[in-house]
């Protein structure tokens, strides 16, 4: 059986850990770890746990999805279906019908027999496919993914998998087997023909669509020097294969692990190393770990957490080069302050790169920040105009959020991938008047050093922060972020259950600093500067506008990153 826990919802009440202790574990105070693919003998216990969860965060299925997906993709590959999709049935005009009835007839016909293609067979792609079927789309559904594996969950890769509790190939997502979809796995999309409405494939084929969802996510930013990146012992962590390789190396008990970058992934890797008693050095360019996401004040708390768990944390420095031995094995790293770290494993955790290159010739609005779309998930073309047949969701999307001055957000959050995909899928099969705006407040979690860190809102969109509840020395608190007198975000360390309350404050544009009396309120509550790094994008403009007459003015891509 397969399960997934929506940890954006989980409030750490631990009923699941009582009812199925071999499947669910609480680490530290409230971080939940689960086995996503438990043995069948756990079946009844897992179902009881799912039913008892007060926030309905546990989702289970028992479909032998591995076989279903493998068979479906093999059948599609051998039948040549990929290049010969079925034709949509045109809508029938009801006798004497007006424009409204005509539009309804058209969307009804599309729901029955249209052709939808999803590029990106992972969390967002799967969530969208499920909603399409749930909303009654019975037409042809093709899911294209460049990874050979069926959709799997990534958050466990840097947690349970690195700790050795769950094998890397057992984080598959539930819901894969019952979609009636044509799966083209192990095949990259290499181009998009917007006029001909077809996705071009790496194997020379093409798949036609009536509506397309782009959900190609991100990949790990590689180490900048290719020869150094190729040294044995240098890893990134994005895919199941990456996690399997790194896990195997950690199990071999390296003398020291070097983590390059103290963001969420780097911190979780360091945490897994310390769990196993391995020596680990984290090198972070900023003043503290997590500083890019949470600012300097809460970053200092994260720094204390690292050091309290025995991490050799070096902040304000960078790794200049990696050095190998004559056998091509990593031996040491040279740092910008002149120091040297001897290590035989290095994990490059320098953030992500959005998978947009395949769209560069398509005339969609792509940039290093992702594919721009409106709040209804419709992709912008290069001129900033949205069409009605190309949608975007997940880590690859960039969208305006009204709560944040309509600025474009590009989020790499599990919860956003799911909610945005759900909105995109709904909109793909709905009339314009029935469409949803993707207005979900961003939510993120991380588990590191036995601490559950949860964030709601956009902490980087803040100028001040205040500790609203709990105790920083005990690392059990809620920090509330504000900007220009209103609440914009909240971050909890082992206090996840309060975040829904703060989410409501963010959504109501409540006053900052918050005036309410809270449980466990510290005496010396005062807002302080949040120490958010306001560095301006270093990317150059990618688009120039040409032409004089309004009928001929066009945007042109002039620099391809
Ligand atoms: C190690 C790790 C730990 C994480 N932990 C957390 C966490 O604790 N909390 C949290 O909120 N989030 C976490 N995340 C982030 C979360 O997993 C992502 O937000 C989520 O996976 C995004 O889903 P997606 O479907 O948009 O993109 P992805 O999961 O990146 O999937 C995109 C898919 O498209 C494929 N693809 C790319 N280009 C092409 C192409 N041209 N043709 C066909 N297929 C293509 C990719 O190979 C991939 O399979 C973590 C991520 C990682 C890597
Ligand atoms: S909220 Fe649900 S998933 Fe989270 S710990 Fe409690 S029972 Fe488990």
Short description:
The protein contains twelve helices and 35 strands. It is an alpha/beta fold. The longest helix has 18 residues, at 291-308.
3D structure, described in words:
The protein has 561 residues and is of the alpha/beta class. The chain folds into 4 domains: 2-61, 2-Layer Sandwich (Alpha-Beta Plaits), CATH 3.30.70.20; 67-93 and 102-219 and 354-434, FAD/NAD(P)-binding domain (3-Layer(bba) Sandwich); 226-350, FAD/NAD(P)-binding domain; 450-529, FAD/NAD-linked reductase, C-terminal dimerisation domain (Enolase-like, domain 1, 2-Layer Sandwich), CATH 3.30.390.30. Helix content is 23%, strand content 28%. The chain is built from 12 helices and 35 strands. The strands form 10 sheets. The protein has a 6-stranded mixed β-sheet. A hairpin with a 4-residue loop joins strand 9 (198-201) and strand 10. Helix 5 runs parallel beside helix 11 (414-428). The radius of gyration is 24 Å and the shape is globular. The protein binds flavin-adenine dinucleotide and iron/sulfur cluster (SF4). The site of iron/sulfur cluster has 15 residues, from helix 1.
Gross geometry: globular
Level-1 CATH class name of the largest domain: Alpha Beta
Low-confidence stretches: 63-86, 536-541
- The amount of helix comes to 10-25%
CATH architecture of the largest domain: 3-Layer(bba) Sandwich
- What order do the strands of the largest sheet run in, or round the barrel if closed? 7-6-5-11-25-24
Strand content: 25-35%
Give the name of the CATH superfamily of the largest domain: FAD/NAD(P)-binding domain
